[in-house]
Amino acid sequence: MPTEPSASRAGRMPRFERRVLLGSFVVALPGLFAACALAWLPWEASLRWAFLVAAAVATLLLARWQYRRVVFPLYTLSGLLEALRQGDYSLRGVQGGVLGDAIYDINALAERLQRERLEFEESSYLLGKTLAALDSAVFVFDEGRRLRLLNPAAQRLLDAERHRLFGLGAAELGLAPLLEGPSARLLTHVFPGRSGRFDIRHAALRSGGRGGQLLVVNDVGRVLREEERAAWQRLLRVLGHEVNNSLAPIQSMAGTLATLAARDPLPADWREDFRGGLELIGHRAEALGRFLSSYSKLARLPPPQPRVVELSALVAKLAKLEQRLPVIVEAGASMAVEADPDQLEQALINLLRNAVEASLPDGSVRLRWRREGERAVIEVEDDGPGPPPSENLFVPFFTTKPGGSGIGLALAQQIAEAHQGGVTLAAREGARGALARLWLPLPQAAAPLASLTRDA
Q1: Domain of life, per the record (predicted)?
Q2: Which pTM was predicted?
Q3: Helix count (H) and strand count (E) of the chain?
Q4: Chain mean position to CA 314
Q5: Are residues 323 and 233 in the same domain?
Q6: Same domain, yes or no, for 68 and 182?
Q7: pLDDT per position as a tens digit, 238-261
Q8: Could you give the number of structural domains in the chain?
Q9: N or C: which end of the chain has fewer CB within 10 A?
C-alpha cells in the first residue's frame, strides 16, 4: 500500500504549485532587471538595444527551462492515467516528485483497481466452475431475449455447439414459452437433447443499466427416476431374500420327497417322512402367504379419517394390550390430536411390539407423550440391544428378527406421514436400548394453548 504523502495538503502550498510559481518569477527576472536598468542608467542607444536583446534571449531560455519543469511531470502523470485507462494496473509513479500528492492518489487507485480485478477474476472463475458442475441448465438472456450465457448442462439440453447458440433469440431456441407465466412451475417439455418433466424457474436480471432474464431448467424426472430405481432395488433385494427363504426349503424338501417316492420298495417309515416333509412345505407356504398378505396390507392402506383423539386414553389402552412385558406409562399433560384412531393405534402397536420383543425376557418398555412446539410427540423407549446400524430400517420387508415380516416400521412411517407427521428410530443416548418417536401436528386451535403453556 502506498504511504501517506509527507506534506499535508491543507497545511501548505503543494510542491508542484510552488515550483510553477518560483519558475514563473525566475522567467520574469531578466525583463524586470532590463526595465530597471533602462530606467535608471544613462545608456547609449546601441547599448540599450544590446541589453534588450540579451534580456530577451535570457527570458526565452528561462521560459524553455520552466516549460520542461512543468510539462515533463505532467507527461508522467498522463502516462500513468493512460495505463489505468488501458487496464494496466502494474505501473507506479515515484511519490517523491513534484506531483507527490497526485502520484499517491494514482498509485492507491491502481492498487485498488488491481485488487478488484483479481477478486473479479477469482469470482468469475468460481462462478464458471460452479455453473459447469451444476446439473441444472442455466440460460442468461439480454433485454432483447438473445442468449448471452449458458452452462454445459444447458448446452446438453439443447444438443448444439456453444458458438451456434450464442446470440440466438429465445423463440429460435424454443425457450420463449418458458420465460412466460409463473416464475416457478413444473411442466413436461421436449428439448432437443432430452424430454421429460422439468422444474422451470425464471427471474429478471439487470446489468450495465440494461435488463435481462435468467432461466433455470432442472430435470426433476431424472432425479425422481433415480430415487425410484434405488427404492425398487432395495425393495426387490428384501423381497427376493424373503421369497428365497421360503422357496429354498420347499424346493429341497420336494426333491427329497421325490427321491423317497422313487424308491422301491418304500422304507418302513416313509409315512412319517412324507408327513414331516409336507408339514414343512405347508409351514413355509403359510409363511410366504402371510408375507404376501402383509405386502397387500401395506400397499392398500386407506386414506386416514381424522377425528379428535385423546392421547392419554389411547396410550393407556395400548399398554393394556401388551401382556408379555409390563409397559410403564409416563403420564403427561392432557393432549388431543386430529388423527384416524385405528391407523394411529396400529402404528403405535407396531412400535410397541418391536420394543417389547427387543426387551424380552426381563427388560422394560416405557410409553410417554409430550408437546414440542406445534406438534405432539409419542415416545416408545426400551431396554433392548438397540436398532441395528442400517439405513434400511424403514424399507418395507427389511427385518433382522427371525420370522419378522419387515412391515412394522414401514407401516408406522406410512401412517404418520399420511397424517403430516413422521417416525424416527434411534439408539438411546447414554443408555442401552432404542427410542422410537412418532410425532403428529397439533390442531390449529391448539397452537395458542401451546404458546400460553410455554409462557406460563
Answers
A1: Bacteria
A2: 0.45
A3: 12, 12
A4: 41
A5: no
A6: no
A7: 667 667 766 777 777 788 778 877
A8: 4
A9: C
